[in-house]
Design goal:
Blueprint (H helix, E strand, L loop, with lengths): L3 E12 L24 H4 L10 H13 L3 E2 L2 E2 L2 E4 L9 E4 L6 E2 L2 E6 L2 E14 L3 E3 L8 E3 L6 E7 L6 H17 L12 E11 L9 E6 L2 H20 L7 E6 L4 E7 L9 E2 L6 E2 L2 H10 L4 H12 L3 H7 L3 H11 L5 H19 L10 H12 L5 H14 L4 H7 L8 H14 L1 H8 L6 H11 L6 H13 L1
Parallel strand pairs: 13-14
Antiparallel strand pairs: 1-11, 1-12, 2-6, 3-17, 4-5, 4-16, 6-8, 7-8, 8-11, 9-10, 12-13, 14-15
Bound molecules: adenosine-5'-diphosphate and magnesium ion.
């Protein structure tokens, strides 16, 4: 690897979460019986007229604005002509050459700090149907449910230099489309698909090498594996005197290798021309501004703000911004308590664990939110110790929204600050352990932990550990 540099450009197709297709009212829902959502428009029958789904345009603009792209105000759809069995019209309607979003970038957090990945464009197009080769031994079956589903295709500049960075980039794209609710990001259902273009060159060489393209990678791990394999393979090829030819390849997940599907001729002849059935469309400044105004705060904005305003670590903010639902819940908590760090710890600890265990989402625990705030405040005020709070009171509050202080009082869980009761427990513990006391007095100071633990047990967790330690030290030194 030493003298070579890998160059990677990604093309990511994201299925937009609209109810209906890009140019007709057919449903886009995943998992329907084959060919259930196929009107004459999807089938490309003569005499039918497509009509553009404005929601899809809005979603594409949303994604473009979130990535800092320029939004093109004059737009049209073109026909990209080619024959494919699952493309019934004989052309795909696309904006490939005149994208709605131009430029922009997405920031990834790598082990070596932040990197900005430049985008070339994001354009709208319709998906093709699906050819199924593995059901019948002799026939290819065609399911056209997916034909006409709206896609955005996001294309990066050739500016990624490792499989790891490509992995982080796709992870970030998936997070962003989910955050904006423009695509569900489910790679296993094909809602997000990636083609990786890979070349190598000598370090410092300004010219790009010949690329290979690995098509239709359907998991983020496979994207990484395919790129790792390709970089190795291309270097081997050059080192053993071979030449790289421009190729389209596919990934074999059974052994983490890639194989050639076809040698790619350079100039494709798709004979693009504006679709005469679809009027060009103009996006007004007001329309674009209204979408911008409705955009939610983005993960990177929240992370930066929370570091400053709440003093949270990079790790905490990163974790809290994994999903929008989680970030929104945290925002609601911070509107009700000033114990920001405690709220973050509770979210990333007990709350996450509870939701995972019960397979629930944040919307399911909205009702417990004010009681959670009360719970954090009790712990921060020293009235409940954390382990009692997280093991007992928390569960009660989650299972049935109720006041944690009332629950704790009713179950004798309130931590006692009373020196008197703590002193009594201490006396009991010390008189039950005379040898340990002698050892402590000879210098085995670590035994203090044992005594604190015993007092804690006697008090059923209600003795404030700090206070206990303090009183114990006094007692033992007298
Ligand atoms: P096409 O549409 O024919 O696949 P594009 O020029 O639109 O080609 O490029 C597609 C992707 O390939 C882009 O992400 C681009 O950055 C990337 N790419 C282009 N040339 C190279 C190269 N030599 N090495 C790596 N990636 C490349
Ligand atoms: Mg391509």
């Amino acid at each position: 690897m030493g003298k070579y540099e890998a160059v990677i450009g990604l093309e990511i197709h994201a299925q937009l979460s609209t109810e209906s297709k890009l140019f007709c009212g057919d449903a886009t829902r995943f998992g329907a019986a084959p060919n259930a959502h196929v009107s004459p428009i999807t089938l490309g029958h003569p005499g039918t007229l497509p009509k553009t789904n404005t929601k899809a345009i809005e979603y594409a603009i949303k994604m473009g604005l979130a990535c800092g792209c320029n939004i093109a105000q004059e737009n049209y759809f073109a026909r990209k002509n080619y024959f494919y069995p699952d493309l019934p019209k004989g052309y795909q309607i696309s904006q490939h050459t005149t994208p709605i979003c131009v430029g922009g970038n997405i920031v990834i957090n790598t082990a070596n700090g932040e990197k900005s990945i430049q985008l070339n464009r994001i354009h709208l197009e319709e998906d093709a149907g699906k050819s199924i080769h593995d059901i019948s031994p002799i026939n290819t079956l065609i399911d056209l449910n997916r034909a006409g589903t709206p896609l955005i295709e996001l294309v990066t500049e050739p500016c990624i230099h490792s499989a790891e960075d490509a992995f982080l980039f796709v992870t970030e794209v998936r997070k962003l489309v989910r955050w904006l609710a423009v695509c569900d990001g489910n790679m296993e259902e094909g809602s997000l698909r990636c083609d990786a273009n890979i070349s190598i060159r000598l370090k410092g060489d300004p010219v790009l090498g010949t690329r290979v393209e690995v098509k239709n990678l359907n998991s983020i791990r496979n994207i990484k594996k395919a790129i790792e394999f390709e970089i190795e393979r291309l270097i081997q090829l050059i080192e053993t005197g071979g030449t790289i030819i421009q190729q389209t390849r596919s990934f074999d997940a059974s052994n983490d290798t890639t194989f050639s599907i076809r040698d790619k001729e350079d100039a494709n002849d798709y004979r693009y021309f504006p679709d005469p059935d679809l009027a060009p469309f103009h996006l007004t400044d007001e329309y674009i501004a209204s979408i911008k105004a409705a955009l939610p705060s983005l993960p990177n904005e929240l992370k930066a703000a929370w570091k400053v305003a709440f003093g949270l670590s990079a790790y905490d903010t990163e974790q809290l911004c994994e999903h929008k639902g989680e970030a929104d819940f945290f925002i609601k908590l911070t509107q009700q308590t000033k114990h920001y760090k405690a709220a973050a710890n509770w979210m990333l600890g007990p709350i996450r664990a509870y939701l995972n265990e019960k397979a629930l989402g944040y919307s399911d625990i909205e009702g417990s939110l004010p009681y959670l705030v009360e719970l954090f405040n009790l712990v921060e005020a020293g009235q409940l110790n954390f382990s009692v709070a997280s093991n007992k009171v928390f569960k009660a509050v989650m299972e049935q929204p109720q006041s944690p202080s009332e629950y704790a009082k009713a179950n004798n869980l309130i931590q006692t600050q009373s020196s008197e009761s703590i002193a009594n427990w201490i006396d009991e513990v010390l008189s039950a352990n005379p040898e340990k006391v002698a050892e402590y007095k000879k210098g085995k100071r670590g035994l203090i932990g044992l005594f604190v633990g015993e007092v804690k047990k006697k008090s059923k967790g209600t003795a404030d550990p700090q206070k206990t330690t303090q009183l114990l030290e006094q007692k033992l030194s007298s």
